[in-house]
Fold:
Amino acid sequence: MIGGGFMGKAHSNAWLKVNKFFDTDYDVCLKVIVGKKSPLEAFAKRWGYEEVSYDWEETVSRADIDIVDIGTPTFEHMEMAVAAAKAGKHIVCEKPCALTYGQCLKMAKEAKKAGVVTYLNHNYRRVPAVAYAKQLVEDGRLGTIFHWQGAYFQDWIMDPDFPLTWHLQSKYAGGGPLFDLSSHAYDLARFIIGNAQAVTAVNKTFVKERPLPGAGAATFSAGAKDDKAQKAAVDVDDASFAVVEFENGALGSIQTTRFATGRKNYNDFEIYGSKGALKFNFESMNELYFLDATQPQAEQGFRRILCTEGVHPYVSAWWPAGHIIGYEHTFVNGFYDFLQAIAGKGLPLKPDFNDGADIIRFAEAVKLSSEAHRRVLIEEIK
Structure:
């Protein structure tokens, strides 16, 4: 595991749990936690890693490592993934895949050449309610899809004194919500209804300058406040709104922002078709709302489906009916699929690095549309 922060915890927990709830062909051993500066000994002891390393290059080449899990900032993904692939390791990587479409293609090329399995952790696909929504669409229950409305809203950087962490610098993050949140929102759209064909978009940066980070600054924490801290320019978006034309003829929108007052992790989508409609929001992640327009008009209306029955995707591995699951379970579900793919079981694993490339291609098209003030075809991004 490379990285001992927020994602390091989420991934480590999933590796510990996956064989306790799912049957796989492998026993997972947490061999090495790899980091840079901060001490990792306490992290290793808490999560059960056998060793600590501060040299990721040496670690990924070790013969006793089979899987490399990359939970670092985006700018480090390509170098680490390429090295892992060349060393013949199967790879888990946090989203977004990389800083550019070209970097993602390089990652996918090296993985294909090495014949290794890759998994890009867009974990919201592994929410049972989301996976069930896909089933309903594939079964034709919504008929012809007309509209997709996706929104991913947070509010954690609204304070203008929140520091210029790596998430707010394009050289490290690629973009703001466009790369962080829109990558998730677009992945859900691709998963359920298919790829985009064109976009017309506007990105906005509300806070132009921010103080440089001080002690304790992290992803969701501003750290110690320093009134004398120097400021630097913000060169990523604070919000990204895109009108999306899909290949299947549907028209939709993907809206993401970190300036939605009161929204903490509001990952929401609505789908409207000729025979029905669906609505999902991650803040109530076990629930899916379905309207069946083939029913008599007097009986129509959105009904709540609690997706905790054994017949719903992934649920049979967890708790009895009606017992909800949480955020951390999506990682376990994903790692189960990853291990099954390594064993050659089930469908090809998605999303992989090729999917990651398609997602960043979409993000680059949105960015170009906003900068050029025009409609952009996805195929324009080379």
